[in-house]
Amino acid sequence: MRTCDVAVIGLGLMGSAALDALLNSGVDALGFDPIGPGDNRGSSHGSCRVFRRFNFENDNYTDLSDAALAGWKRLEADSSETILIPSPILEAGRPGSARVAASRAAAIAKGHADPAWSAATANREFPAFALPTDWDVVVQDGGAILKAEVALRIMRKRAGARVFPEAAQIDGRPDGVLVRTKTQEVLAQQAILALGPWLGRALPKIAPVLEVTRQAVGWFKAARPETVSPDRFPVFILERGPDDFIYGFPDFEQRGVKAAPHNHGPKVSADDWDPPATDAELLPVSQALAQLIPGAAGPVIDRDICLYTNTLPADRRPDRGEEFIIDRWPNSRLIVASPCSGHGAKFATAIGEKLARLAVDPTYEVEPFFKLSRYSAFG
What we know:
Layout: E1 2-9, H1 13-24, E2 29-32, E3 49-51, H2 61-79, E4 84-86, E5 89-93, H3 98-109, E6 116-117, H4 119-125, E7 136-140, E8 144-146, H5 148-159, E9 163-164, E10 169-173, E11 176-180, E12 185-193, H6 199-202, E13 210-220, E14 235-241, E15 244-248, E16 257-261, H7 279-292, E17 300-311, E18 325-328, E19 334-338, H8 348-360
Parallel strand pairs: 1-2, 1-12, 2-9, 5-14, 12-19
Antiparallel strand pairs: 3-8, 4-8, 5-7, 6-7, 10-11, 11-12, 13-16, 13-17, 14-15, 15-16, 18-19
């Protein structure tokens, strides 16, 4: 039987970043995942994600963004590949939008210039847009398009033969965690579970605090293609009303403008990747583009499905939900990661470092707002 110090089960962005951090520190670590780069399943599939320095979700994430940015830059330098394509981040909403105000406050709190713009200025600078003149707008610097699939490929390649492209089952033993695949039996001293929507199956006790939802994604043929190139079009997040968000990217791949709703879709299971996004699911996005970004509006030319694994609101240390779980599993040799909720990918390098430290440093503790103990089921 093979042995190792740490086994990482699930090699999306979080698991791959954890494995990368472990191997860079000289830890004897192995990774397991039947889903590889380029597959159309898994929380990390697809070409791109948004990288934001200043986060409306929670003040806790700004420092995490800084740490993640440093990690992405190191990975770029080590690989000589581009992972981050710099892009302004435009966030806009109806007058009094709490989320736009929170993004503005996060930037100012870090000592940056006030990022508030008028809607008229945004429409002039980004001619694809036609935002209502009374909307609140911020345009953040330091943002980027995160080339998720490239990052995943680089980290998997760096791990080399320490990755097993197989599904793994785990069993706790007094002397470690037994990891079984069709071809391997490995005894690890610790195991990191970064399983995305499948986490609740591996650990049924955590399932009641997670909710998996189906998220439709589309690529749109722009009415004015000259206005949606990366030099003239920002990454955007628009709040049309309560629980009515869309986000999107410039046409940096010559594939069209990628846009999707950020509100939660219907609840699904971890295996519900089909059918592809329907016209009905993408209709609100088409309507929002036509109303607010007419230069980007047009027919759907490609489509995809993502699954969000959302945390529910906590009760012992109250939060609003959609926060991360990064912690040791009680009375075990397991570490769990559920930093998804639709906004986790940009933090992967920083979260990978946290997961690696949890596995190898028994004195290390994550911040309280990431801990399982905020839920009474684990308190």
